[in-house]
Amino acid sequence: MNGQNSALLTDLYQLTMLQAYHREGMSDTATFELFVRKLPPNRNFLVAAGLEQLVEFLENFRFSDEECEWLNTLGYFAPEFVAYLSDLRFTGDVYAIPEGTAFFQNEPIVRVTAPISEAQIIETRLINIVQLQTLIASKAIRSVLAAPGKLLVDFGLRRAHGAEAGLMAARAAYLAGFDGTSNVLAGKLFGIPIYGTMAHSYVMAHDNEAEAFGRFAESLPDNVLLLIDTYDTLEAARKVVALAPKLAEKNISIKGVRLDSGDMAELAKAVRSILDAGGLSECSIFASGDLDEHELGRMLEAGAPIDGFGVGTRMTTSRDMPYLNCAYKLQEYAGRPRRKRSKGKANWPGRKQVYRHYDDNGFMLHDLITEESESHIGGEPLLRQVMAKGKRLGSQETLTAMQERLRGQLLQQLPPALKSIEESAPYAVFISDGLKRLVERMDGAGL
Amino acid sequence: MNGQNSALLTDLYQLTMLQAYHREGMSDTATFELFVRKLPPNRNFLVAAGLEQLVEFLENFRFSDEECEWLNTLGYFAPEFVAYLSDLRFTGDVYAIPEGTAFFQNEPIVRVTAPISEAQIIETRLINIVQLQTLIASKAIRSVLAAPGKLLVDFGLRRAHGAEAGLMAARAAYLAGFDGTSNVLAGKLFGIPIYGTMAHSYVMAHDNEAEAFGRFAESLPDNVLLLIDTYDTLEAARKVVALAPKLAEKNISIKGVRLDSGDMAELAKAVRSILDAGGLSECSIFASGDLDEHELGRMLEAGAPIDGFGVGTRMTTSRDMPYLNCAYKLQEYAGRPRRKRSKGKANWPGRKQVYRHYDDNGFMLHDLITEESESHIGGEPLLRQVMAKGKRLGSQETLTAMQERLRGQLLQQLPPALKSIEESAPYAVFISDGLKRLVERMDGAGL
Q1: pLDDT tens-digit map of B108-167
Q2: Could you tell me which residues are beta bridge partners of residue B310?
Q3: Are B94 and B71 within 8 A, CB to CB?
Q4: Which of A169, A260, A322 sits opposite B319 (nearest CB)?
Q5: A113 φ, ψ (degrees, to nearest 5)
Q6: Which band of pLDDT confidence, cut at 50, 70 and 90, is reported for residue A1?
Q7: Residues contacting A213, CB < 8 A, separation 6+
Q8: Residue among A128, A185, A219 minimizing CB distance to B23
């Protein structure tokens, strides 16, 4: 089972529509845009992510011979259409908001202009790729905001929704400001720093906890992090203190302890006292277990002396809202703007751009969504061209560069109210007069 | 990026623990069990799923040469340990509850017995594989229960959490009783029936809706399903009626229409009237768009004449609870039971079995969790051996067989109260006296 690179990772209707376009000879240029209709509750902004994987997908898009043979067995498709599919490549232009940029409702984050069949066939996987990382980056940054200056590590692989979800979540969390991940493969693929301690099973496999601690320390002397909640946390902290001088004789120091259950704010205070009294003031305390931004905020507000957090399942699955209300919609075909008017799902037509306006101190004031062709005054255009005629423009941006872009925005541009993990008054996103007039003209003409 | 088969798809601490075990010469047999601590709210039972993918993972588990070379560059691991990893295979025994079986809290659904390092290193991906499909099957079956006899199709790929999530969700939903999926690759890989109609973009790319309908019908004459909510649903239904006689001349009949927005219960009634009045009583109505089991229940209760549903994002992401509170825990090492006592996370120790008891009519009465070695009276053991010495036992079960097992349970065994999509009184899961005595002995001895 190895599907992530397959062009068949799509909805059947994309293929039935393509067959109809093919039969009708409809091959004019179309523009589709991906946007989020509405921010989820408790998200004051979203963070664009996943563009790198999207570009890789588009550059490599093709149906293999074996896939075409299989399509021919289905009885849905004419052989000449399948032959056409086997030659199909993505040759379009792509504009996108760079990864690590804050954005808001109705703002196109990816704009694709290509012959209609090419722009259509990529829809399902395009959403699948960009939605996930954008969702997770937008969730992960809330932990970053709740625990400034603390070490944050993604622990979510095991309950992520499959392999790709775990890898993409590690990447998105790092982009959002996490320090690293427990996910070894994410370290290899993306160069993300990897972190790890021990599991309860390691302690339980030994006949006593102190013996487990000592042996683990000798096995990994440069990075001794001990999990102390398997039986009794405070008792285990005392064992750590008792062990320290013995390890010191071997030039091994205990770098940190991890808590994974109980009232961790209270436990951290008690453990800190035990460690300090035992001369281990350099030994850090790390916490994990069912954490999210709210838990982090509560613990730090309660004065918990915790130096770092492993944030797992609730971040990796975006527990409170595990998807974005996003859509990839046809906005223009054959040079004419198009508009869906379905109830509750109407959208702004035409090929668009987003301009961000800043105040004199460099803080974001508002965004303006315009027709691409519209003349406008000032503001920073958010959508940049990333592919031309199916090829990547420029070189691949590093994850670190994206992380820095976002950190810069957080510090210097994002209005302070939006940085709360509580819901703030919404950021202003305006629709240009040109776009409003376009809608009036289209609705007036019944288009 | 191609990670799903990599042994590096794991948490770093698995590798640091393995290095410690290796250094200590700890290689005795361990038993780990995967179980769910607590059912999520609104789940009266869970459905085991994902075992097939787990067995494939275990049979093929290995670190590649390239992965070992990379591990050697990290500085965490001794070269002799990495050499040991390169030879590591899974040689253990696995017992599991068959896919498509209802189960409950604290019941081991997978039990692994192997040399401790083998049983440990597989933890992360084992949870990652089984948790996802079990989560989705347990969510999807709620739509099956809410809409008995209706056509149900998985539409969730685009907002699933990546490629693997979309594929596994399609499989899990089918296992749970869905009729098919829109996911073409899932059709190819798992033999699941695939379904599809058209998107709004198809309608919008044409200059008028009626023309779009007509052309689509001619392109796919055997399977004419028309999306009618792009502009005005009732108007579109009238266009369908007007189109039908023209298509009939070409021996094409309109199989169905799809609604995707608005008050679909009301719209379905109005559309049904229009279709019936126009002689299209054979034309079915299919609904999609932000659906879940509650929406299905409400629409059907309101008497909506809907024949089938596309259930997407909310099912594929398990919207209301996107993860299971599950754990894979060491229960026995070197012949001795082990028990974690962390606050709120204590578990039942030892190698276990689950016996299901039925009443005279064949309905499930209660389950009993016992030590594996315990003598007991009656009941059906749920855990069956699926791997011996690292090899699959018997042949691969078909998805259809699993689907039938589950359908049989729903009809003939599951207590009717549990089949409600509202929360019912919990099913009784008892802990055997032997297991309780074991815990007392272990706690008494401070183990």
Answers
A1: 999 999 999 999 999 999 999 999 999 999 999 999 999 999 999 999 999 999 999 999
A2: B153, B288
A3: no
A4: A322
A5: -125, 120
A6: very low
A7: A203, A226, A236, A239, A240, A243
A8: A219
0.80 exceeded by the pTM? yes
pLDDT in tens, A336-393: 999 877 777 778 999 999 999 999 999 999 999 999 998 877 899 999 999 999 999 9
Task: Kindly determine whether residue B230 and residue A341, on different chains, have CB atoms separated by under 8 Å.
Answer: yes
Chain A within 8 Å of B399 (Cβ-Cβ)?
no
Phi, psi of B359 (to 5 degrees): -85, -175
Chain A neighbours among B 87-116 (CB < 8 Å)?
Answer: 116
ipTM summary value? 0.97
Domain ranges of chain B: 12-136+321-444, 150-316
Please report the residues numbered 196 through 215 in chain A whose beta carbons come closer than 8 angstroms to any beta carbon of chain B.
Answer: 196-202, 204-205, 215
* Domain A12-136+322-444 fold: nicotinate phosphoribosyltransferase (3.20.140)
Instruction: Domain A148-316: state its class.
Output: alpha beta
Q: Name the band, by pLDDT with cuts 50, 70 and 90, for residue A134.
A: very high
Q: What is the domain class of B150-316 according to CATH?
A: alpha beta
Nearest Cα of chain B lies from the Cα of A379 at a distance, in angstroms, of 31
Q: pLDDT per residue over B391-421, tens digit each?
A: 999 999 999 999 999 999 998 999 999 999 9
Among B237, B154, B311, CA closest to A12: B154
Residue B232's alpha-carbon distances to A51, A158, B111, B260, in angstroms, are 35, 45, 55, 12
CATH superfamily assigned to domain B12-136+321-444: nicotinate phosphoribosyltransferase (3.20.140.10)
How many other C-beta atoms are found inside a 10 Å radius of the C-beta of residue B25? Answer: 7
Give the C-alpha separation, B344 to A145, whole Å. Answer: 28
* C-beta atoms of B322 and A161 within 8 A: yes
